[in-house]
Amino acid sequence: MVLPVIIFLPLVGAAAIALIAPSRSTALKPVAVATSAATGALTLWLMAAFDKHDGDFQFTQLTEWVGSAGISWHVGVDGISLFLVVLTGLLFPIAIVACDPPHDAKAYYIWMLVLETGCLGVFLALDLVLFFLFFEVVLIPMYFLIGSWGHENRKYAATKFFLFTMLGSALMLVGMLVLALLTARETGNAVTFNLLELANSAGELPTITARWIFLSFALAFAVKVPMFPVHTWLPDAHTEAPTAGSVILAGVLLKLGTYGLVRFGLYLFPEASRYFAPLLFTLGVIGILYGAVVATMQRDLKRLVAYSSVAHLGFIVLGIFSINTEGIEGGLLQMVNHGLSTGALFLLVGFIYERRHTRQISEMIGLQKAAPVLAAVFTVVMLSSVGLPGLNGFVGEFLILAGAFVAHRWWAVVAAAGVILAALYLLWAYQRVFHGTPDDANRSMPDLNWQEKLVMAPLVGLIVFLGVYPKPVIERMEPAVNALIEHMEEVEGFESPTVDDRPEGSFEELRTLKADYGDEGEGH
Amino acid sequence: MSTLVDLVWLIPAFPLAGVLILMALGRRLGEPRAGWLATAMMGGSFLATLLVFIGLVGHDGDERETVLTLFEWVPAGKLAVDIGFLADPLSITMALFVTGVGALIHLYSIGYMHGDEGFSRFFIYLNLFAFSMLMLVLGDNLLLTFLGWEGVGACSYLLISFWFTDEANASAGKKAFVTNRVGDWGFLVAMFLAFLTFGSLQYGEIFYDVESHGMAASTASAIVVLLLVGAAGKSAQFPLHIWLPDAMAGPTPVSALIHAATMVTAGVYLLTRMSPIIAEAHGWVPDLIMWVGLGTALMAATIAVAQNDIKKVLAYSTVSQLGFMFVAVGTGAYVAAIFHMVTHAFFKALLFLGAGSVIHGMDGDQDIRRYGGLARLLPITSMTFVAGWLAIAGVPPFSGFWSKDEILAYAYGENRLLWVLLLATAILTAFYMTRLVLMTFFGPPRWTDQEVGTEADEEAESASESVPEQALPYRHPHESPWTMTAPLVVLAGLAIVAGVFNLPFTSDVHFLGNWLKPSLFGNAGHLPFGGGTQWVLAIVAIVGSLGGVSAGAAVYIRRRIDPARIEHPFLARAWRIDELVTNFMGGPGRRAFERTTQFDEQVVDGAVNATGTLIRRAGTKLRVSQSGLVRSYALGIALGAVALLVWFITRAGL
Amino acid sequence: METAVFIVCAAIVLAGALGVVLARNPVHAALSLVGTLFGMAVLFLNLDAHFLAAVQIIVYAGAIVVLFLFVIMLLGVDRLEDLSVEPITGQRVLAAIVGLGTFGLAVAFLLSSDIGLSGTGPVPLTLDITDEYSNLRQIADVLFTDYVYAFEATAALLTISVVGAVVMSRRMARGDDAQEASGDD
Amino acid sequence: MFPVFAQADIPDIQWLPLVPHLVMAGAAVVLLTIVSLAGSRLPGWFASAWTVAAGLGVLATAIPVWIRVEQWGPHSVIAGSIGVDGFSVFIIVLLACTVVLTSLVADGFLQREGLDGPAFYVLLMLSATGGITMASANNLIVLFLGLEILSLAVYVLVAMHLRRAESQEAGIKYFVLGAFASAFLLYGIALVYGATGSLNLAGIEGILQNNDLSDNGLLLAGMAMLLVGFGFKVAAVPFHAWTPDVYQGAPSPVVSYMAAGVKAAGFAALLRVFFAGFGGMAEDWQPVMFGLAIASLAVGSMLAIVQTDVKRILAYSSISHAGFILVGVQAATHDGVASVLFYLAAYAAMAIGSFAVVTVVSGPGDEGTGIDNLRGLATRRPLLAVAFTVLLLSQAGIPFTAGFWAKFEVISAAVDARSFWLAVIAMLAAVVAAFLYLRIVVAMFLDAPDPDAPRLRIPRGPALAIAIVVLFTLAFGIYPEPLLNLADDAWLNLRLVAH
Amino acid sequence: MVTASWYLILAAGLFTIGAVGLLVRRNPLIMFMCVELMLNAVNLTFITFGRELNDIGGQVSVFFVLVVAAAEVVVGLAIVVAINRRRPQATADDLSALRG
Fold first, then answer.
1. In this predicted structure, what is the pLDDT of residue D449?
2. What is the pLDDT of residues C52-69, one digit of tens each?
3. What one-character-per-residue DSSP string does D420-441 give?
4. Least CB–CB distance from D187: residue in E15, E78, E86
5. Is B592 on the interface with D (CB under 8 A)?
6. Minimal Cβ distance to B639: which of D227, D231, D238
7. Which residue ranges form the domains of chain E, and what is each CATH number?
8. Are residues C95 and E20, on separate chains, in Cβ contact within 8 Å?
9. What is the pTM of this model?
């Protein structure tokens, strides 16, 4: 099977790197790049081989692992996880190529690859405990990446990140156990953590219990997302992390949370997710506005981008919990988009940092004069992040808001105001950094070199492509999302909030219609 | 179906190709070839439009909407949006003058942007704008229109802050984008509501649905009002007009193309396009549009009276003219609105380009108080400018007269008060345009030059009171190159004759009206009175505009009244609205943002760190119990034992 | 008769115990401990545990207390402990609470319930105390049959104490004096 | 009549189950004899090697016992005073491994500290014998003797580093409190004896099944007193106070034995008594375990994060681990005991490894146990740092380490017993505790080493021990199934101890 | 007639005195003595129960307790001796270097 290969190939690479002799340290990066690139290629192959009409899990592999505890090695991919896997496979090589560690290259690449394995495992696991293992183990490489290669305040940031996220997942573990054991008790079957079996028996549990369990899951994911008010680890982690760390953190790690909300929140707890949807909706909307407002006031460019993530992830949560095809698909699409655009933003900020050795907005001015190409790329990425139609950001945002509007009108109306603020903080930041006449410190800043251009090219390309032609992504998601919603509807017996079917029409029919009326109103 | 119409995709394809080519090798092409390429693309686009137009004309009157779908754009769940073009009279009319005027302005820019280091970048933006604008116009669904809508916004942002090294331009661009976003919010929500109501965003399906099943007036009203918010943002209607004057920071061709001829009219286009929904809305909704338009028109006109920056004057007049179009839409005179849009596109573009030529000649000085007597030195510019002046002033037979007169007529039919105010606005328009023309081209020069030094000096004494600075600036005005003057001439011609597109005399010569009929689905209003009244109204209008002109002459040539008494500071400062907004954003608004940020740092994050320190504190406190004294440890054990005994005695039920 | 013996011995036992707790001089404490042990031995006799009464005297009074005294002499721990002050604040109050608590609760438990659940069903007692054999022999029987494992285990116990004593009393070869010197002040 | 009586009670002794006990005790005595006879002619490593051999011997002999248990099912020997069941075998194996690893850790340490001589190993093995006795005791007096054997030896071991005042201080503290606590324990035994008239756990269980003693004061008071004794041994709050001081003062290898072996034996005895004996009265003692668990978790974690001495940190963390194990005990179910056994095994590995690292790092005089001594260990001794990190993460319960599965099992037992809040509290405590492990990791990886730090010597013994435990931790972290099943079987039999 | 309760209460009292003594005395030796008191109390309890239950097990237990007591004292005194070699006249409170 291909999935285990995808998951463990980076680990193999890490092992290989561990074995490289210190004398041959030049070989480190090539190996790392090669492994991650190979993994990326495999994920692309996966996307190609993926049957886009099948809403079910594909490439599944199921073998017993810890039988006594009902835990199995169960992996598989469906439209919901497919593109997150691809995104992971794409961002890691880019991040690895883009930035070289200042010291301890060996450990750095090992941790990066371990991290990749962890992320892929999370997206592909179909067993709760397996998922949890990967979900939790991701912390360690990230902890070391931030802690060892981060900036001034890295220890604080790393520890905060670790404890904050661990707190969330700690309760989730209890939740999982309660779920599995009580379900087994209700159904009389043996204890199992198999996602599919648990999902089939979802609704067996007493409503209140299910809601509590859902909360324990939601907390863990909310921390990871991060949602207001448990978001404050993010700015610190992002600011202190090395560039590659920020890219992965924003591009992939945050998605673990939103992905979990879909895969486990909605799938396992239809009733509870509907019951708590207003709560999460509200938090999402708060996150959108709040994150934007706070971002506007940041003096540190990286911090600003970090808070913009809070806002964007708020949108995603909004989409997920509108529990209709448009919203969820928008959310999933936005996960990918956010990974691309925010990842790109962090790369660019990193490039600037390497040149200027500062992240303080106040210390930069008129960079567009010094580095036009950098500025141009930044503009495109920024506009995508602002949600300009024609770039990827917009499609997701629109679907989310449309779905949200159908589900909970007024929330969506307020959330839509987030697009104004997004324009405000990003354009203002851009103006302060790139516009104006550069002073001596900034005038001599070199423009992007070929390697950096090479790194940015695929990102920008995808940003444009997904903005113009998102269909390949959406059509692969749709069956899975519909399956999910049908599952929820049959378990919970509720109607997914959606627009009622209207008659197909066109100008021709309109004309015939008016012909019947005999064009009244055209009198005189 | 005629194949010509299916060429509609070519119309945006040309500018897009231009963008891509220029992005690829714009640097290598360099000046002026990059400019020529861009212009050629616009020309090609214009020709394509003509072909489509011809194709449409070939169709039978009622079958003039054809939809060309390229590919599915966002097929998600119930929402299915395509990249598809709607070629119908309305869109093609728009496309015609967008591409036409656009091509001229591209040509003009080659001369205007001469020697600018960002030459090719400028034309990339310009082509990109044209592309977006055409998507806006030709999109067959709201979402695609929105794509163009936002695209033109982005381009205007890029072009306003084109000379980014100057902070003022940068913030003007940002202001324009953000203000537009406020409007876009309305557009977005309107789309959601439409999607919820019709399950689709395609014009065809929406209109069919409305026609076949009708719709709740409340929903329709909501949609229209939200669209109005969007339109007000894009078309600079009160209170979202504040961005347009600042937008003059951009290069003048930009002001001409984007902020006069094309983009700002998008709001009017949108409302016209959605006429079937407006027809379903409550009665007060059109009135709202109408009064917003009137208010804006009147206000902007009064402001324009007191401006001294030549481009600011034109900017406010643009706002005012857009107000006219909104009034037209509000009164159901969609045809008049489009008609005025077209004529306005011609003469306002002309005026702006002329102004640009003047500025070009005056080495970038834009203050009309330092102009004067330029007619002799800039013959072509001044002649064409005069044509534009008469057109906007509403002097027959210039184009402006016809369109404005039609709007006035409908206003009269709608509401007398409306008519009076609108007429006053028209008069004001004539007045301030006269002021502009006189101060720029006629009267004594208020600048010095080697050749005309002496006379300039003494005449300067007489005029000096209107000049704040005593020392007269040194200038040597010169006519612009042909690339700049040629478009002026063409536009002037159009500005003069454009009236023939839609003559009021008989319904046969009402060309534009008949042409647009299919796109309006019989929602166009009708004059409740006959030709006689129309003649009367026309005469009144003519008298009014001539009065305005002569009043201007009276003030600014014969100096019957001190101009300072008219140019009241309150008007000069644009009714202080801009200041109010700025003060709010800089004051309470900013403070609120800062408060929130502090809240995040101190309360939200503070709580997190507090938990940590709290646990630490507890630990430190507990340490005391670890005294190192074996006897206190023993005591702990003994107390524990007692505690256990107590528990178990409760279990024993004693 | 038994009552009288009990009362007297109880008095001795408690007096001795209090003596241990209250005597300022360790030697006195040790001697009053002897008193307690004797009283205890008599009580054992009272309870027909003749063998243990003897062992009590031999092992406790004969060995343990003597050991105590030896150590006291060896170390010359004759400094009187000042009981009027208690360095640890609240120690005595809490100790008093503990005392009352333990005693009170213990008594409560003891009186609340009857021993060996007489009346609540048969108790599988395998080791009845019979009058046919001497107390010594009965203990011996049990000791070398049912409790033989425990009996052997005591060997390990004693070995440990021997080894432990040796280890602890060993003088460190090198650098020990310096250590002591530093330790003294 | 007399002969009849004589032969009546001669118990038939089945030797096989006793072999492990005898091997362990015998090895100690023989070692003592050999050394005292051969004196200094023996190589330095002899005693250590001997002990390792003895431990392995016990492991070897434990296997047939296990097989026998599998065949015959659980039973008791010597007139029911020794229980032979999976549970006891599990603990015996665990203790044997502890002895082996501890003697490996001690190798080199003793020479470094000039404590050479067989005493350490003799006492170690005798103490282990006591532990074995506790684990398999089916009679309260036997259990008490085992506990005393275990403790007395450890008292000496703790105090034996005569050059360190801390060592003796720790010794006297441990001794006084230990004696105090075991007096309570003994009183408890007496009361239980009074209530039930039997000292045999199986007998007691039988009696409790046949009669309703649910409100018998003697029995309940006895249980209270017993809990005091066991609580002391396993270092559960409020009977924990000795732990940090003793761990800090005692020689590091001894601490690794205490944390791994003594704790295991203590819990073994606790489970024996309260499951085999008072299983019927679970609802009486469950709440107490609940309270002890929470107190231990809270106090342990919160005090640990404010420490600066690694040994103290680990001591407090061992308290919070005790709390975790009590969570499993509290469940009072089949899974509960299994999870406890698994946890004990996993924790033994982590503890021995951690203290082995401390032993190596602390340097001459066993003084350098401050957290600063670990600064930059990653650059000074990368492998050691990584190994220690693995062990610490395992203690923190990070996935793919044995520690995770330990927590997983315990929590699932608690959840299965429907004590959800206890599970939640335990996990929260785990997060707090994670902070202190991170502190150590930070010191090792993110802090720069002080330049004048002496080069670390890593003797073969400790290195081997650390390698073994790290492998154990990772192996069972990735595939815990075998150990889980073992623990599972171990419990299954316990409940059926024959009378 | 003396009932078992009397003995048991006496034992309880003795146990308590021992416990309290250990808490209030600072001299390690006397603390050991207090432990001995507690053990004696337990012995008394055992024997009383033994008689009441007509079971020899109580007495046997006492026998073992005696052995344990002896062994304990030996080890304890050995430790005290070792400490006193380093710090003569040390009381329990003096030994509080390890704390916190």
1. 82
2. 999 999 988 888 999 999
3. HHHHHHHHHHHHHHHHHHHHHH
4. E15
5. no
6. D238
7. 4-88 (1.10.287.3510)
8. yes
9. 0.91
